[in-house]
Amino acid sequence: MVTRTDIVLAQRAYYQGDLGPAKELLLAEPDALGVLLDERELLGGASWETHSRRSLVLAALRDTTPSAALLEVLLPLALGTRRDEREAAQSAIGRAGVLPTARLFEAISKGTKDDRIHAADWLARSRVKEAVPLLVRAFEKEKVEAARASILRALVGLGEPIARFLDRARLAADADKALAKGWPTSLAFLRVESLPRARWRGGDELELRLVQAWLLLAHKAKTPMASPLLVAYAAELEDAGREALGEAIYERWLDEDFRLPEPLDGDVRERLEAWAQKAGMPLEAYARTPGFKLNVGSLGWMIGKGIETGALEHRGVLAVAAALAPRRLVPRLVKYVRDFRGLRIGASRAMLHMLAGMDDRAATQALVRLSMRFRTASLRKEAEKLVNEIAALRGWSPEELADHTIPTAGLDDDGV
C-alpha cells in the first residue's frame, strides 16, 4: 500500500535529482500506478500536488526498466489517450526490450479507435514488418478517418507503396457516403462553391464533391496533419490548380481564425479601434497581428470584458490545405509561427502539424530547425516530437533525419 509519506519522500528525492525512491516505489507497488497518476485528490494530498506527483511518476517511468508485473500495468497506458502517460509507458516498455507485438495486433483487430491509432503508430516506429498484412486488412475495413490515416501512415512507414491504395472509383463512392447528411453549416466559412478549381493530371476537373468530402473527413479527424492517402491523391493533380486550391483553403481558415465576434460591445469596439488607429491600420487588419493578441488579453482588467477569437475547432481542414499546397504554404507557416511565437500556441501547434504531414523536403527542414532552435519552449518541444516521429517512420534517428535536410529552411540565425 502506497502512503502519502512514500510519495513525499520520493518527491523530496526527485527535487534533489534522485529518481531512485520513485523507481523503487513503482517496482514494489506496480498496481498503485493508476492511483498515482489519478488527476483527482488522493492519499490525503491537496489537489495542487497533482502536477508534481504526475511529473515524478512519469519521469520515473521513463527511467525504469519494468518488472513483469509493472509491464502488465503499463500496457493499457501505452495505448491510452493521454500523450504524456502513453509516451512514458512506451519508453519504459522499450527499456524492457520486449515489444508486446501480440497485444498490438489484438488492438489493431479488436481495440477501440484510440487503441488502433496508437498501436499502428507503435508498430510502424518499431519497424514490425510482419504487421503489414494485418494493417492492410485493417485499413480496408476501417471507417474512422483518424484511424484510417494512422494505419495508412504506418503502412507507408513500413515500406508499402502508396499507389496500391489509390482508387478513384472508391474515392467517389466514399465522397458520396461522407456527404450523405449534407454540408455542415459550421464549415460555411470555407465558401466551397467559390474555391479555385483544380484538375487531375490528364485534364479532368476535380469534382467539387471530392473537395468537400476531403474537407469534411479532415474536419472530423480533427488533425491538421494530412494523411498519406490525401497527399498521394493531391500529387495526382496539376500543380497550379492544386496549389491555388490549397492556399485558398488556408486563407479562409485564417480569415475565420482572426474574425472578430459580432456584435462587439460598444466599449470593446472603441478600445480595439483606438489600438488599431494607433497601429495605423483598419481594425480587421489589426486583428491579424501579434500586437492585437497582446492587447486584447488586457481587456478583462481594463474594462471588465473580453473577446475570444479562433477557429481551432476547425483545424482539421488545414490538413487538406497542407496536402494540396506544400510549396506555397511552408514559408507562410514558418512565418506565422515566427511572428506569433507564444501568442497563439494552439494555432502555431496546428501549423507545425501541417508541416509534419507534408511530403516536402522544405517542410521537414523547417521542422528540424524549429526543433533545435526556437525560443518558445512548448513549440520547440512539439516540433522535436514531430521530428522524432517522422524519423522513426523512415527508420532513421533524428540526427540522421537532420543530416538528410538542409539546415536553413528559410529561417534566420535565431531559429525563427
Verbal overview:
With 416 residues, this protein is an all-alpha fold. The chain contains 24 helices and no strands. It has helices spanning 4-15, 20-28, 33-36, 50-62, 68-78, 83-96, 101-110, 113-125, 132-141, 145-157, 168-178, 208-221, 228-234, 239-258, 266-279, 283-286, 290-296, 299-303, 318-324, 326-340, 345-357, 361-372, 377-393, 398-403. Helix 7 (101-110) runs antiparallel to helix 8 and helix 9 packs antiparallel against helix 10.
The biggest beta sheet reads: none
Class per helix and strand makeup = mainly alpha
Low-confidence stretches: 40-50, 408-416
Q: What is the first-to-last residue Cα distance?
A: 50 Å
Looking at how many chains there are and whether they match, the oligomeric state comes to single chain
Averaged pLDDT: 86
Q: What share of residues are in beta strands?
A: under 5%
Shape descriptor reads globular
Number of helices: 24
Number of strands: 0
